[in-house]
Amino acid sequence: MSKKTSILILNGPNLNMLGTREPEHYGTMTLAAIEDSCSALAAANGYACTCFQSNHEGELVSKIQEAIGTHQAIIFNAGAYTHTSVALRDALSNYDGVSVEVHLSNVYKREEFRHKSLLAPVVSGVIAGFGASSYSAALCAVDELLSKE
Ligand code: DHK
User: Fold this and answer.
1) What CATH number does the domain containing 68 carry?
2) Are 8 and 71 contacting, i.e. CB atoms less than 8 angstroms apart?
3) Where residue 3 falls among pLDDT bands split at 50, 70, 90?
4) Which of 73, 78, 84, 123 is the one with CA 20 to 30 A from 116?
5) How many domains does the structure of the chain reveal?
6) Is 54:12 a contact under the CB 8 Å cutoff?
7) What mean pLDDT is predicted for residues 95-120?
8) Does any domain span residue 12?
9) What is the DSSP string of 55-90?
10) DSSP conformation letters of 82-137
């Protein structure tokens, strides 16, 4: 039996609070609703999809390590760790699949400390500023990149 191509949707700190967290930046959709719509879109395009959220840097590092050989793509909103985490950058550097950094908000319109991403130089691409649609745009990008392989 052929193995289904699998995508990991990874979310970092405070993204479990979506729905009520600063809606002016992050909208009103809950993380569960975003994950459900990503899973439906992935399934409609023939992909398996696993979703995971953690507030802990080390758990996110472990998930990226475990994705090697398991998931062919990672869509990752690292939250505030985007701007600070050498550990997550190193984990992504070592990941051999397609990787997309996503943000709900347009980080370039916000405070200066959010303009710098430690992850951007080691991922396939970055999508920011489209609210929950940033995730569906990332899925489309992943589909296109994986279809080329
Ligand atoms: C989410 C966060 O939690 C912030 O720390 C980032 C990002 C932006 C987002 O827009 O999804 O700076």
Assistant:
1) 3.40.50.9100
2) yes
3) low
4) 73
5) 1
6) yes
7) 98
8) yes
9) S-HHHHHHHHHHHTTT-SEEEEE-GGGGGT-HHHHH
10) GGT-HHHHHHHHT--SEEEEEESS-GGGS-GGGS--SSGGGSSEEEESSTTHHHHH
Ligand 1 closest atom vs CA 128:
10
- pLDDT category, 140, cuts 50, 70, 90? very high
Q: Distance between CA atoms of 40 and 54, rounded to whole angstroms?
A: 22
Does some domain include residue 1?
A: no
Enclosing domain of residue 44: 6-148
pLDDT of residue 4: 78
Stated length of the chain: 149
Question: What contacts 90, CB < 8 A, 6 or more positions away?
Answer: none
Q: Which two tokens stand for residue 132?
A: 């929950």
Name the residues annotated as catalytic.
26, 103
Whole-number Å distance, alpha carbon 149 to ligand 1 midpoint, is: 31
- Mutational pocket test of ligand 1: of 9, 77, 106, the residue with most ligand atoms within 8 Å of the beta carbon: 77
Q: What is the mean pLDDT of residues 42-48?
A: 96
Inside any domain, residue 17: yes
